[in-house]
Amino acid sequence: MSESVEERPALLTASSVQVSLGDRQLLAQTDLTIGADEAVAVLGPSGSGKTTFLACLAGLRIPTSGSVRLLDRELTEMSSTQRAQVRLDSIGFVFQHADLLPELSPVENVMLPGLLKGGDPDGVRADAEWLIADLGVRTAADTAYLSGGEAQRLALARALITRPSLLLADEPTGALDRATRDEVLEVMFAKIRSEQMAAVIVTHDEQVAASADRTIELATVRSVDAT
Ligand SMILES: Nc1ncnc2c1ncn2[C@@H]1O[C@H](COP(=O)(O)OP(=O)(O)OP(=O)(O)O)[C@@H](O)[C@H]1O
């Protein structure tokens, strides 16, 4: 059993985050504090701002008001270049659709963030091959021919190659059938736990939410313990 958030430094603290869109206020001063090995699911009705919240946590979007601290650094006060560096150093992303580059082979897709981070190409390739095998992807020669589940596992490998402290996932199983969803969920949470990463996972899926340590619901902004 891991110790509680209160007993250890937070990896990520979002405080009173709000985004104004004309006369609409998204996120209603949302708060979220997560520890270094905690997985939190973000639920909420369509349009409640889940993707927008994730973008704020990643420094892709600066909230109209509120604060986002990652590894004790305030993202809202950084330049876009500094925020891009924080993302490369510390954050891995998984989206609803794997968004792989079909021009690149599966291994090259996974290598990309590692190379951008300045890794030695031979070392990055070996690590990419290891991650791909570890996540159970049977590497097809052509990225375009991967199944939905394989593509999503590959996207997870791509997110993990930089060994991020924080994994951000937006509907990572939203495009998969139930059986494939269960397989992807299993490898994703196994990795989150074995790598002792923090994760924030936007989802509509109660099964995904139940796999997380905790759930927050936007709109009502209340904390609900997953069972
Ligand atoms: N840059 C923007 N300009 C105008 N409206 C925006 C912008 N970004 C987001 N929105 C609006 O903010 C609202 C919240 O969008 P968001 O994608 O964050 O919701 P969501 O909860 O993730 O929705 P879903 O579950 O359908 O994916 C939507 O009404 C969207 O159209």
Short account of what is shown:
With 227 residues, the chain is an alpha/beta fold. It has helices at residues 50-57, 80-90, 106-116, 121-134, 148-160, 178-194, 206-211; strands at residues 10-21, 24-35, 39-43, 65-70, 73-74, 91-94, 166-170, 198-202, 214-217, 222-225.
What does this structure look like?
It comes from Haloactinopolyspora alba. Keywords: ATP-binding, Lipoprotein, Nucleotide-binding. InterPro entries: AAA+_ATPase, ABC_transporter-like_ATP-bd, ABC_transporter-like_CS, ABC_transpr_LolD-like, P-loop_NTPase. One of its GO terms (cellular component) is plasma membrane. The protein is an alpha/beta fold and 227 residues long. The chain has a single domain (5-225), classed as 3-Layer(aba) Sandwich (Rossmann fold), CATH 3.40.50.300. The chain has helices at 50-57, 80-90, 106-116, 121-134, 148-160, 178-194, 206-211; strands at 10-21, 24-35, 39-43, 65-70, 73-74, 91-94, 166-170, 198-202, 214-217, 222-225. The strands form two sheets. The protein has a six-stranded mixed sheet with strand order 6-7-8-3-9-10. It has a four-stranded antiparallel sheet with strand order 2-1-4-5, covered by helices on one side. The longest helix is centred in the C-terminal third of the chain and has 17 residues, at 178-194. Adenosine-5'-triphosphate binds at residues 21, 26, 44, 46-52.
